[in-house]
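Contributing: when you submit paired examples, paste them exactly as shown. First protein:
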Amino acid sequence: MEISLLGTEILLATLGFLALVTGLLPGRAKSITGSMSLAGLLLILVYTIAHFGEEASLFQGIYLVDNFAAYFKMLFLTATLLVSLGAGRYLERFENKKSEFYSLMVFATLGMVIMASAGDFITLYVGLELMTVSFYILTAFLLRDGLSTEAGLKYLVLGAASSAILLFGISLVMAYTGTTVIGATAARLMTEPAVVAGIVLLAAGFAFKISVIPFHMWTPDIYQGAPTPVTNYLSVASKAAAFAAMVRVFMVAVDAAPGLTLSWNLILAILAALTIIVGNLIALVQEDIKRLLAYSSIAQAGYILAGLAAANAYGLKGVLFYALLYVFCNTGAFIIATAVEVDSGSTAIEAFRGLSKRSPALAAIMTICLLSLAGIPPLAGFVGKFYLFAGAIQQGYLWLALIGLIMSMVSVYYYLNVSRVMYIEKAGKQEPVKGSGAFRLALWVCALAAIFLGCYPAPLSNLAQQAIQLFL
């Protein structure tokens, strides 16, 4: 076996341990952790891009190297880089625990990478636990903050319950099929009560991770209580990892099973519709930017789930395309929310009053990111939703596409409400919001990506098309 096939995983594990060890160095020596982690993540991203196109099945199908996994690896690394760059002055709240923050971020990324490449249920579960255990710690990272501690405890309890449900589903499928290799289960799945129960439990476990209605109850409280950079990372990368695993499981095992007559596409379509409706309607009344983005992320998960429910070329391409543009748009919005929170000490939407006068660039980028999430042309969100809705219509779910279109128009209201506060209401302070060069670099990357992918989506669209070929 060529060791380069596991290069991304090996490099991430090495970087995670190095970040942890540098935190033990005396004096100012530990200050290199941040720069080392960012440089390492960038180099690993370049390495992953350079090896795109390699395909192999390792350890008798337990671990897969293919374009689908490589696409999501690039997504996870991009998200980690942007979140780390955009954290800015917020990291000062972590005091002498910055090295642990970077180390846990890298290990969470490693868990996501393992999930994307897992060809076996047990490997998938190991990756999932590596990711979620890292997030349990990161969520409660502000030990002196009651909200952060409460969020960490809630996430631990509810996350453990969802993981147990997922593992129970895996055990039922394995007991009936006699294998944990995802590809080998398709020929052995039948419409039997135990198998149906196992698939339902698998779907419920994944639904918790992506905040699908009615498994969304953890999202608002944990997003609000966790440190804002952690909330940022949790909202984009962990959702993408769950979708990567869910697409592989359902497309390779469930959808390809000749003996399974369960109409899981319709079930997913109904869940997607409920998620889109509930997420957008509750977001209308939010007065805290983190809770607003939490319910917005629930609705966005519904849009992506609509593509998986379609399970065709347009739908799956939309899942991958939208997952990456969501990283840029949602991360950009959260980076600005982080800077405003550090500046004002508040996460209320009112804290954005007069931001256009104080920091015009931040207000403009925030508006671009939010309008892209709403699907306003010519921004990237419009193209992503076009693929998702086209896939739903092609599959015969016109009603789902109409619900998505109507709710997208509803979302414009609460997104523009933030812009109204920034541009119309008077500022309480006159000083501009401060930010480092890395902070501004991350913001401009997010804004330019939202514009470029909307005006010229072909490169990313072609990349997503290559990544989904193994399912078509």
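Second protein:
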Amino acid sequence: MRPLMDYNLVMKTPALIFMAVIALVATACGQATSPSPTATPRPANTATPEPTPAPTATAVPTPLPTATPQPAPTSTAPPAPTPIKVQTRATKESGKAYDFEIETFDGEMLRLSDLEGKVVVLNFWASWCPPCRWEMPFFEEMHQEYKDQGVVFLGVAISDTLENARGFAESTGVTYPIGLDTTNEISRNYNVVSLPTTFFIGREGNVERRLTSAANEGVLKVFLRGQLRSRN
């Protein structure tokens, strides 16, 4: 019986070898055809962006409340007249009054020396001078009150035209004598440097007072009463 078993083993050995070879070949072919594993791509290192700061709003300064200017209270009283300057040369201002002759708007020639023995209110003015225009009605009023007491009002317009000076005197209703100093010689001799300017001349022909601002009724009365009392 032993030889039979060896015979079967011998007969099966080539087949086993063949099958082993086939298995090896198949294994080798399988390894050759199977795809090689591919590496999974790793994401590139990217820098993490820094967060962009949120824009900050620039604070606009709130303007401080401003007070609404209130109009200054207006006075109902008439404004005080402002003297107007006139350029003249400096001359004597007191003592004996300078004598002069002037033609009045009525066409008469009047000389100051002919009025000696009376109190003379000599007023220098101009039609373009607001303070002069303001005070002239007071001169006319005092002329009417004192003309019978030995007081003479005399107006001398300077740096003016005959038409303007005469027109304003007539519109104001002035009745005392007024003339125009056509050469400004009279105003220079009396050193008139502002308008209006008024001289109070005593009975002896001397300059007693000089007023370089506008005069109202009260001011004129103060000077005239002083001159009239000096007669007694």
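If you have annotations for the second protein, write them as plain sentences, like these:
The longest helix spans residues 2-33.
Residues 87-229 form a domain with the Glutaredoxin fold (CATH 3.40.30.10).
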